[in-house]
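Lecture 7, part B: from sequences to assemblies.

Below are the input chains for today's worked example.
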Amino acid sequence: MFSTGFKYFMGMTVLSVAALIMTLFVFDQVALAGVALSMLIVAVALLAGIAVVTRDGYRQSGVTEQSTDLVSQSIWPLVTGIGVVFLALGLVISSLVFFVGIVILLAALAEWMVQSWSERASKDANYNASARKRLLNPIEFPVLAALGLGIVIFSFSRIMLTVDKSVGAVLFIVAGALVLIAGTLFAIKPNMRRSLGAAVCVLGALGIVAGGVVSAVSGEREDLELAAAEGHFTHKECGPEESEYFDKLKEETLSLRSSVSATIIYQDGELIANLQGLDKPQKSITVSRSSATNIIFRNATEGEFRLVVDLGKPKTENDDSHNDVDCTQLVETGGEQSLTLNIAKSSSAENHYKLFIAGAEDKQIEVVVP
Amino acid sequence: MNHSAKHLYLKRLVTSVLRMVGKKSQTLFGVSLLSFIAASCATNAPQDTWQPKGPNAKLIDDLQQPVFAVAGVIGLIVAVAVIYSVLKYKDRGQPIPEQTHGKPALEITLTIIPALILAVVAVFTFGAIFKLAKTDDTEMIINVTGQQWWWEYDYPVQNEFGITQPIISSGQLVMPVGTKVLLRETSRDVIHSYWIPALNGKRDAVPGRIQTLRLEADKPGIFAGQCTEFCGLSHANMRMEAVALSKADFAKWVANQQAAYVAPEKDSLAQQGEAVFLNQCVRCHQVNGLMRADGTPAIAAPDENVWAGAAPNLTHLMSRNTFAGASFDLLSKQCRDEVWNASSDTIGAKYLAGVSQDCLNQKDLRSWLRNAPEMKPMYANPTQLEATGGKYRGMPYLALSEDDISKLVAYLLTLK
Ligand SMILES: [Cu+2]
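Predicted structure of the full complex, as C-alpha cells:
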C-alpha cells in the first residue's frame, strides 16, 4: 500500500492546496502568499511522487522491524488536529484565534516529538517515561500553573464585576480567610493526605470557575453597565445633567492632585482662585499657552455644582485643537475634582477664556493666557 | 622604607602613570590638569556656585562650606592612610604580617563616628531643604516655562507691583531686588532644569507639573545660568539670565512691558519690515497689539508650527539683552560689557536703556534671521520632521532675502 513518506507528503500537499484556496478567498493581496504556497505545493507533490516511486527508499518491501514494546496511546495527534482547526478558523475569524492555533500546534508538536523520541530511548519503559518527564516537566508545570491560575483569576474577576460592591468586599474577606485557614491547617498537620489537599483545591477552583461562567453569562452589575453605556469618561456634559450615572464618578487621580496650578473654590456664592505660591485669593488665573495645566475645583457650597471652562472659538481656520467648552463632573458639597487645561492660543481683548459655574454663569474666574 | 627609597618609589609611580597616559596625551594631560587648577580660581566665572548673591544661595553656601571642610579633612585622612599602607606594606618579599580579625570595640567606634558625622550633616541639610521649600512668604510669583531650547517667563497680574496685565518675556528673567520671588516652573516638552547658581539651587521643570523655586537677589545685577537637565540637541545652548533691578527700576520695566504697541512710522523701512513680519513670522511669534492689514489682530499660531506649541513673544524684544535662549547677545560686545560690568547703582538704568540702533549686535541678529539652525542646532529640517508630525523644534531656515532681513531688523528695533 502507500508508504508512510508518501502519506506524509501527500497530506502536506492537500493542506497547502487548502491553504491556497483559503488565502485566495480571505485576503485581498495574495501575491506573495500565493506564490509561496504554489511553490510549496509543487515541492511537496514532487516529494510525494518520489516517495511512492522509491517506496520510501526501502529496498525490500513488506516486513519492517517491529519494536517489541507496545507504544502507548497518545493524545497529541488529536491536539494537533485541534490546533489546525483553530489555525484555519483563525484565518477567517480573528488573528487571536489564529495565534491560539499556532500556540496549540507548536505545543502539541513539541510534546509529540518528545513522546515518540522517549518511547524509543531505551528498552526500559520506566526509564523512557522518566526521560520524557525530565525534559518536559520544567516547561509543562509553569505553563499549566499559569494557565490554571489565569483561568481562576479571570473567573474571580467576572464574579466581582457582577456582584454588588459590598458583597464583593465580603467575598474578598472570605477568600482571604479561606486561604489563611487552609494554609494554617497544612502547617499544623503536615502529614495530612496529599490527595485531600489537592481535592479541596480543585473543588475550590472549579467552584470559582463555575461562578465566573454564571457571572459572565448574567452580565455586569447595573451601574457598571450604565456607566459603560454612557461612555464613562469619554463624554462630558457641561450643560444641564442628562446622564444618570457617569456624572457621579469622580476622577480622583492622585498624580493630578499632587501638582495643581490653582485651586478654584466655590464658596459663599463666590468663585475664587488660590494659586499655588500665592496666599491671596485671585479672580484670575494665568495659564501658559500650549502647556498642560491642572486645576482643582472644590465645591464649598450647599448642592452639586460643576465647573465649566469656556475656551472661546478656535481662532485660526485650520485649528481644531480644542473644544469650545470643557468641564468637571458634578461635585457634591465638600467634594473636589481636577480639570486639565491646555490652551494653545494667547488670550487677548477679542479672545477671552473663563471658568464659571454651570447654571450660575455670573460666577466667573478669568483665564489669562499670555 | 628610608627616605631615598621613598623618593625612588614616588618617581616610579609618576613615570608609570605617565606611561599609562601615553606619550601623546602627556601634554594634554598636563594642560587639562593645569586648566583644571586654574579654573578653580577664575575671576570671570558668572556661574560660580561659591559666590552666593541672595539669601537662598547663601543658605546653600552656608551648608556646603562646613560640609565641604569636614569631608575634605576626612578625605585627607583616608587618602593619607591609604597611601601610607600602600607604601609600608608593599610586597617586597617580606613575610605576610600577622592577620587580626574581630576587634569589636574598634569596629563599633569606626561605625559610630561616621554615623554621627552624617547625622549632624543630615540635621542641617534637612533644615536647609525645608527652608528652601517654603512658599508661604512669597511676595511675587513668576511662571517659568521651559521648552527646547529656551525659557519663557510670564508674570501673572499682581497689582502691588503694577502688573495689571500679564507680562511675557523670554531668556532674561527680570525681578525686583529684596523681594521673595517664587518661580512656578513647568515645561512644554521634555524635562528641563532651571538653575541660576548665584541665587539658588536647581529645580526641574517637568511637563504637567508645577514645581516651585525661590529666588531673591540682594543687590541689582545680572546672574547667569543654564538648563541643567539634558534636554536634547541644543541643551548646551539653553541658557538664561536673571536680571535683578531695584524696586524703582523694576516698576519702570513693568510699565514699559505693558506699554501699548506703537506701529512703525508710515513709509519707513521698519513699516516694510512689519509687513514682512506679518507674512513670515507671525505664524509663530506673537507681537501683542500687532494688526493685520485688514484691521484684525494678528494672533500667532505656534501650536500649529512648533512642537512645543510656543515661540518667544517678541513684543518687547529690544528690552532684552540676549536672544535664542540667552545664547546670543542682542547688544554689541562693547555695550554688553558696559551693562555687565556696571556697578549695582547704575546697572538698572543701563539695562532699562534696552537695545538702541547703535548698540545692536547686527551681525548675530542678521545671521539668526538668515539661517537660525546654522547658529544654534535645532530640528528644523522640513524633510525630517516625521517624529513631530511636521512641526519644528526651534526656528527654521526661512530663505529671506538680505533686503527683507534689513527691513526686519529695522522693524525689530522698534519693539522696545
Ligand atoms: Cu533644557
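Note for the exam: The longest helix of chain A spans residues 125-162. Keep this in mind when comparing with the next example.
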